[in-house]
Design brief:
- By secondary structure, the protein is of the alpha+beta class.
- The chain is 50% helix and 18% strand.
- The strands form two sheets. Strands 1-8-3-6-9 form a five-stranded antiparallel β-sheet. The protein has a four-stranded antiparallel β-sheet with strand order 2-7-4-5, with no helix packed on it.
- Strand 4 and strand 5 form a beta hairpin.
- The radius of gyration is 21 Å and the shape is elongated.
């Protein structure tokens, strides 16, 4: 299953559940009383709760509360990480992990944040909560989400490496190993994908989209789209609108 991220609040009436996926309960405010397969505990902003697939669990709260909920496929998680999470159904949240949780919650609250973009932060978060060394691939995925959220910033290999907390040479190596491409090639493709999505889904002026995606001006965007897709921004928008009309 794809990772699902949600914001939820619970009331004073205990609710029970069991599901085939793993779940992390990450309180943002308030305390949450849980029972996970007979193991009772309290989750709060400094303490997370991890629920393995198939375990019956109940939860309730007698105070105002909100939690970030992550539903994910445990089989897709590295074995070491899954094992560490299972060892402690109630685990402390470190200061760096708390900042990451707050950031993901903020992104989730923004309507423009796509589930796929948020899911890229999951490996980094899981490894932080499992208190293990963060894998370069997890750092890269988190950095890519940050870059995709701000495509118009003047990204370079140096600033991309800084976002991933690694050296430029390490960035190139991880890009090659994980994505079979280079940082700048990925950046170019990401910006074009972002522009194409905006052209299809919004009526924003092309010049504004060009600047928002990091291009010098509309002419630079047009040149990039002609070279990569053999189409101009205006022609692409018209074609997408015609296709959408046909579907309706």
């Amino acid at each position: 299953m794809p990772t699902e991220i949600d914001l939820r609040s619970y009331d004073a009436v205990p609710s029970a559940g069991v599901h085939s996926f793993a779940q992390l309960v990450l309180p943002l405010k308030g305390k949450l009383t849980l029972d996970i397969d007979g193991a009772g505990g309290i989750a709060h902003p400094l303490r997370a709760a991890f629920i393995e697939p198939g375990l019956v669990h109940t939860q309730f709260s007698r105070e105002p509360n909100q939690s970030l909920i992550l539903d994910f496929d445990l089989a897709a998680v590295p074995e070491e990480t899954a094992g560490r999470l299972a060892e402690r159904p109630y685990a402390p949240i470190s200061a760096p992990a708390a900042k990451l949780i707050d950031f993901i919650a903020l992104m989730r609250a923004q309507s423009g944040a796509s589930p796929a973009l948020l899911a890229n932060w999951t490996p980094l978060l899981l490894e932080s909560l499992a208190q293990q060394e963060i894998r370069p691939a997890s750092r890269l995925l988190a950095a890519l989400s940050r870059i995709e959220a701000h495509p118009g910033q003047p990204w370079s290999t140096e600033t991309m490496a800084g976002a991933a907390h690694m050296s430029v040479s390490s960035l190139h190596r991880v890009f090659r190993d994980e994505l079979q491409t280079t940082p700048l090639a990925w950046l170019t493709d990401m910006r074009l994908r972002w522009v194409c999505r905006q052209l299809a889904e919004t009526d924003l002026p092309i010049a504004q989209l060009a600047m928002a995606a990091g291009y010098a001006d509309q002419s630079a965007l047009t040149h990039a789209m002609r070279r990569a897709l053999d189409v101009t921004p205006l022609a692409y928008r018209k074609r997408e609108r015609q296709d959408q009309t046909k579907i309706r």
